[in-house]
Design brief:
- The protein is α+β, with helices and mostly antiparallel strands and 407 residues long.
- It has three domains: 225 residues, Cupin (Jelly Rolls), CATH 2.60.120.650; 68 residues, no CATH class; 94 residues, Outer Surface Protein A, domain 3.
- Helices cover 29% and strands 24% of the residues.
- An eight-stranded antiparallel β-sheet has the order 1-11-8-13-7-6-2-3.
- The longest helix has 19 residues.
- The protein is globular, with a radius of gyration of 27 Å.
Length: 407
């Protein structure tokens, strides 16, 4: 069986990730500000990744370069040394590992379903782009030289121990890669110097220099990278807003024109064009609800994960009472009361209009992360059970709810 088809369902909450300090303190004190070592007694990642998972991925026979990369002392090893016919040869990877090389698997959650639940927990909390890499290193090796990343980094130590050092950024919120000559020197003291043990988590903000050295045993860790929207996302959205004004759609004055001596458009034409654009931009930026609309469009356009569930979504008569219903990971919704017992729900960039329904019932359903038919009925005892069942079934068929068999 391909490892992605592993039938186990595991869940992890973002609160588990930020333990023991808690979600609120993590965001107020550390997020994008400084690295933090999170050690929670008894925490492991055995349900999500481990040696079994790594072996299954390596032995599946469908890995190709660059999905897996091998390096020694921060120098990449040519793919010809560990691939055959374009596919990764796990025996060659093992041989290189025994000779002191480290290797990493890019997008490992695509190959191991339980690890996907870790990605889901980050995506559901942050609503930003999330990716995972898995790294395995032999004892007493340093995988990468001191560097920084252009995204937020969470290191989940799965097995072994690794010594991490984190240094202050030299550039605030960088968007370009690092240069070796800018790295902290040997005399610079790290502001965080910790050994990650099994079950530990290290958060490193974007731009903070860091490197790690494996301790006495083989290290296996998962790196979760989070690439967040920047302020330029608002500018990208604003371009579409401004295009509604013909001022922005018209041709710019020609930079070369016979009326201005064959060199440039007259200063008056350029000034007039610039003035019209400036006035339009000022008027747009003065709109009181501009940023609110931007945020709503961003949230409404975020695509949930796990939109397709076969065969439940195509089942004609869904036995609603037999299931627990959940919202898809990453789903954010907006409900509009259209009057006359009609409701419009916007989610994942699309809108569904529900006729003949109680708006309060719809709100109860979409405000719940998980619920049963009985729980909804208890909140709305005056609504006929057939009406509730049909509404839930329609939302499942539309991909706006997920159905799980009750234990």
């Amino acid at each position: 069986m391909h490892p992605m088809l592993d039938a186990r369902r595991t869940k992890i909450d973002f609160a588990d990730i930020t333990a023991p300090i808690g979600r609120d303190r993590f965001f107020s004190a550390f997020w994008t500000r400084q690295a933090v070592h999170l050690r929670q007694d008894g925490r492991t990642f055995d349900d999500y990744f481990g040696w079994e998972a790594l072996n299954a991925i390596l032995n599946a026979g469908d890995l190709v370069f660059p999905k897996i990369k091998v390096s020694r002392s921060d120098s990449p090893i040519p793919s010809e040394e560990f691939t055959t016919g374009g596919r990764v040869d796990p025996r060659a990877v093992l041989s290189l590992f025994q000779d002191g090389a480290s290797f990493g698997v890019t997008g490992a959650d695509s190959y191991w379903a339980p690890l996907r639940s870790v990605v889901d927990s980050f995506y559901d909390e942050l609503l930003e782009s999330v990716h995972t890499n898995v790294y395995c290193s032999p004892p007493h090796t340093q995988g990468f030289q001191c560097h920084f990343d252009l995204h937020e980094v969470f290191v989940l130590q799965v097995e072994g121990e690794k010594h991490w050092r984190v240094y202050r950024p030299t550039t605030d919120a960088p968007v370009q890669g690092w240069r070796p000559e800018d790295a902290p020197g040997a005399s610079t003291e790290p502001y965080l110097d910790v050994i990650l043990r099994k079950g530990d988590i290290l958060y490193v903000p974007r731009g903070h220099w860091h490197y790690a050295v494996v301790e006495d045993s083989i290290s296996l860790h998962v790196t979760v990278g989070v690439t967040c929207r920047k302020g330029t996302a608002f500018l990208d959205w604003l371009i579409n807003e401004l295009s509604g004004d013909a001022t922005w759609r018209q041709n710019a004055p020609l930079m070369s024109s016979s009326t201005s001596g064959g060199t440039f458009t007259s200063p008056a034409d350029l000034a007039g064009w610039g003035g019209a654009l400036r006035r339009s931009l000022i008027e747009k930026l003065a709109e009181a609800d501009l940023f609110e609309r931007f945020c709503k469009d961003v949230l409404g356009g975020i695509q949930p994960t796990h939109n397709v569930e076969m065969p439940i979504q195509v089942t004609a008569d869904l036995p609603v009472a037999a299931f627990v219903f959940e919202r898809p990971v990453g789903r954010r919704h907006f409900i509009s009361d259209c009057g006359q017992r009609a409701v419009a729900v916007t989610v994942g960039g699309s809108e569904i209009r529900l006729e003949g329904v109680d708006p309060g019932l719809v709100k109860t359903i979409f405000d719940s992360d998980s619920f049963t038919l009985a729980e909804v009925r208890a909140s709305h005892p005056d609504v006929p059970v057939d009406d509730v069942s049909e509404l839930i079934a329609e939302l499942v068929r539309s991909g706006l709810l997920l159905a799980r068999h009750r234990d």
